[in-house]
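Structure ticket #2291
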Amino acid sequence: MERETLRDRIMARVAAVLGMGDHPPPSGKPDLAPLLMPTMMERFGLDRSALAATSPDLVSMLEARCRQCAVKSLCMDALSRGVTVEGAQLFCPNASTFETLRSGETLSPGKVS
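Resolution: structure written out below.
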């Protein structure tokens, strides 16, 4: 049941982006990073808004990395199926940073691997 709830949430976010009308991303494709990254962060026990309040430059860097990721469709599918942290580490370019943040270590954009 939780998987359906998460899938529904992701799909609702995607639908909201697709309905942007006058403001599509330059490529003509929706920018899924603002949808996928907060959900992936939740999987790691992190809160995007809280991190953005204390480390906005770090969040910008993480979002840029997510935007450049070539496996967003895999990410969306994995999140909708309830991917574990261990599973996400196999494909998410931000997973190691999320894991470091989850451990309580403070990072700056220059220290991110």
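Closing remark: The helical segments are 2-18, 33-43, 48-54, 56-68, 72-80, 85-88, 95-102.
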